[in-house]
Amino acid sequence: MSRWGIAGVGLLFATGVWLVAAPFVTGQQPEGAAWTAATRNDVIVGAVLALLGFIGFFTVLAGHIADMYARGPQPPAQL
Amino acid sequence: MTRYLAGLITATAALAAGVWLMLAPYGLDYPSGGTAVQVDMWTGAGVCVIALATVVVWARAWRGQLRADGLLPERPAEEPAAAAEPEQPPAPAPVAAPTTEDLHSLLKPLVAALAADQLERTGNRHNEEDW
């Protein structure tokens, strides 16, 4: 179940990266010209989405690993 | 708990971003019919779908974990076959056939009352004849 959740967060990160690149890949932003409102919006929203996906992905991964440690065998106490 | 919360927060914020992407062409006055409108509308729709699916997945996973930890009550088991059939009235209990003893015990007080009445009448008649 949480594999699908991690995949969803990863997809959101990928969508953010696509959104940052889209104005330049699709040719809607003329080369050398000042950025249009659409380009600015896409780059900002894409960057926020990619950052969210990045932080979310690693937070989810860290929580998953912490749960694995908590449920696994406890190491013997060292004197 | 951290991972469920992180997944839910990320997906919810992404849902808001997706909605904004779909509204941005109207809010920021993009040139109509341009590539920017198509890109934002399709990407926004995709982000909304992915974010909604992710919210559902994390919410279900968290609920399952809470049930497994005993913090949420178990869902009651469904009984589809029993629930589908209409309830029939309970069959009446079989009536036992009356026995001879039952008839005797039923008639004995009646006969006794009749005999007492008869005796009383006979006694009254004798008294009238004595007069």
Task: Report on the architecture of this protein.
The complex is a heterodimer of chains A (79) and B (131). Chain A has 79 residues and is mainly α. Chain A has one domain. In chain A, 75% of the residues lie in helices and 0% in strands. Chain A is built from two helices and no strands. By secondary structure, chain B is an all-alpha fold. Chain B has a domain at 2-74. Chain B has helices spanning 2-27, 35-68, 80-84, 100-130. In chain B, α1 runs antiparallel to α2 (35-68). The longest helix of chain B has 34 residues, at 35-68. The A-B interface holds A 1-2, 4-6, 8-9, 11-12, 15, 18-19, 22-23, 26-28, 36-39, 41-42, 45, 48-49, 52-53, 55-56, 59-64, 66-67 and B 1-4, 6-7, 9-11, 13-14, 17, 20-21, 24-25, 28-30, 34-36, 39-40, 43, 46-47, 50-51, 53-54, 57-58, 60-61, 64.
Give a topology summary.
The complex is a heterodimer of chains A (79) and B (131).
Chain A (H helix, E strand, L loop, with lengths): L1 H24 L11 H35 L8
Helix pairs in contact in A: 1-2
Chain B lengths: L1 H26 L7 H34 L11 H5 L15 H31 L1
Helix pairs in contact in B: 1-2
Keywords (chain A): Membrane, Transmembrane, Transmembrane helix
Protein name (chain A): SPW repeat protein
Organism (chain A): Microtetraspora fusca
Beta-strand percent range of chain B:
under 5%
Radius of gyration of chain A using CA atoms only: 20 Å
N→C terminal distance of chain B: 112 Å
Fraction of helical residues of chain A: over 70%
- Major sheet of chain B: size, sense and barrel closure? none
Radius of gyration of chain B: 44 Å
Q: TL;DR?
A:
The complex is a heterodimer of chains A (79) and B (131). With 79 residues, chain A is mainly α. Chain A contains two helices and no strands.
Task: Jot down its keywords.
heterodimer, A: 79 residues, mainly alpha, 2 helices, 75% helix, 0% strand, rod-shaped, B: 131 residues, 73% helix
